[in-house]
């Protein structure tokens, strides 16, 4: 099926400030920025800094500096997730009150030892150890201040929403336009009882991103293929919380000479490093398949 784009599409680029941006980030930012510009829409920058250990202010400044150097612009102020923790905690409270969340006291080690398969990210699937703990035991352990995370009761959530579908843009990278979309069934069950509230932060990536997309009026989520499976979980959370469903487009990932995707954790060459080596913004754009004009790239 097809549907016209909204009169004013809103897209976002949402990096985590746990290192400097690399070419993969530049590609994702440029894809989204050009698509928004071609559709007469808005492209937002969002800083996903809920990780209290790895997120650093100098990396936030570095993200803005790198994107400005590339020639991109965006409305201000920039939303930072670390300033919105109370909102995420409130959303988690709604899910908890509706019994969609349950307390989990398990360690990563115990989950890995007892896991029944793996989720789409390759992490051990939770075996359900805490799913049926007696209520009085849970209350007592919480009262003692034992570290706790809160997991989504996936079976209950799916029964509540029924079958869900994901609106997406097929062949997006061939044309870079937002006008048409198709749909496919969502399969959130493959994530199992995923953590929605971490032990160290009153939220998680999955919970905070759907809250932010709704609050910012995001109409189209343009991001890498590594997050395509997460969309199944996100549309489930949107349904549970009564939030709108954006249209999704997942672009290819840039890989290194060994075929591995570019990543900060792998020490991929940063944009700041390329700048220091003499690269210009035009060099980066050409390397990634973009010209100086405001047109979508060709893969």
What characteristics describe this protein?
299 residues; 11 helices; three-stranded antiparallel β-sheet; globular; Rossmann fold; alpha/beta; single chain; 14% strand; 10 strands
Characterise the protein shown here.
Pfam families: tRNA-synt_1c. By secondary structure, this protein is of the alpha/beta class. It has a single domain, classed as HUPs (Rossmann fold), CATH 3.40.50.620. Helix content is 35%, strand content 14%. It has 11 helices and 10 strands. Helix 1 links the parallel strand 1 and strand 2. The C terminus is likely disordered.
What's this entry about, in short?
This protein has 299 residues and is an alpha/beta fold. The chain is built from eleven helices and ten strands.
Identify low-pLDDT runs: 294-299
Average of per-residue pLDDT values: 92
| Fraction of helical residues | 25-40%
- How much is the radius of gyration in Å? 20 Å
Compute the separation of the termini in Å: 24 Å
Largest sheet: 3 strands, parallel
By CATH reckoning, the class would read Alpha Beta
The name CATH uses for the topology is: Rossmann fold
SSE arrangement, N to C: EHEHEHEHHEHEHEEHEHEHH
Count of the domains: 1
- SS-based class: alpha/beta
- Strand line-up of the largest beta sheet: 1-2-3
The rough form would be described as globular
Strand content: 5-15%
Q: Provide the CATH architecture.
A: 3-Layer(aba) Sandwich
Number of helices: 11
GO molecular function: ATP binding; glutamate-tRNA ligase activity
Keywords: Aminoacyl-tRNA synthetase, ATP-binding, Ligase, Metal-binding, Nucleotide-binding, Protein biosynthesis, Zinc
GO cellular component, one term: cytosol
Protein name: Glutamyl-Q tRNA(Asp) synthetase
């Amino acid at each position: 099926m097809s549907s016209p784009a909204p009169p004013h599409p809103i897209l976002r680029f949402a990096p985590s400030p746990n290192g400097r941006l690399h070419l993969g980030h530049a590609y994702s930012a440029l894809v989204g920025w050009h698509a928004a510009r071609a559709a007469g829409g808005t492209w937002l920058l969002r800083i996903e800094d809920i990780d209290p250990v790895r997120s650093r202010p100098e990396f936030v400044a570095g993200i803005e500096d790198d994107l400005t150097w590339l020639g991109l612009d965006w409305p201000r102020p920039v939303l930072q997730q670390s300033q919105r923790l109370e909102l995420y905690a409130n959303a988690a409270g709604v899910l908890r009150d509706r019994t969609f969340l349950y307390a989990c006291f398990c360690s990563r080690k115990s989950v890995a030892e007892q896991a029944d398969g793996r989720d789409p990210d390759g992490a051990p699937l939770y075996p359900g150890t805490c799913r049926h703990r007696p209520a009085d035991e849970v209350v007592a352990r919480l009262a003692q201040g034992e570290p706790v995370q809160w997991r989504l009761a996936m079976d209950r959530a799916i029964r509540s929403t029924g079958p869900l579908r994901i609106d997406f843009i097929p062949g997006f990278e061939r044309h870079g336009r937002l006008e048409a979309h198709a749909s496919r069934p969502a399969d959130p069950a493959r994530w199992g009882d995923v953590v929605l509230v971490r032990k160290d932060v009153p939220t998680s990536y999955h919970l905070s991103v759907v809250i932010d997309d709704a609050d910012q009026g995001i109409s189209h989520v343009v991001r890498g293929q590594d997050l395509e499976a997460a969309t199944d979980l996100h549309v489930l959370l949107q349904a549970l919380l009564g939030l709108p469903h954006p249209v999704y487009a997942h672009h290819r990932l840039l890989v290194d000479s060994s075929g591995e995707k570019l990543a900060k954790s792998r020490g991929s060459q940063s944009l700041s490093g390329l700048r220091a080596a003499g690269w210009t913004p035009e060099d980066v754009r050409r390397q990634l398949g973009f010209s100086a004009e405001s047109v979508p790239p060709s893969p």
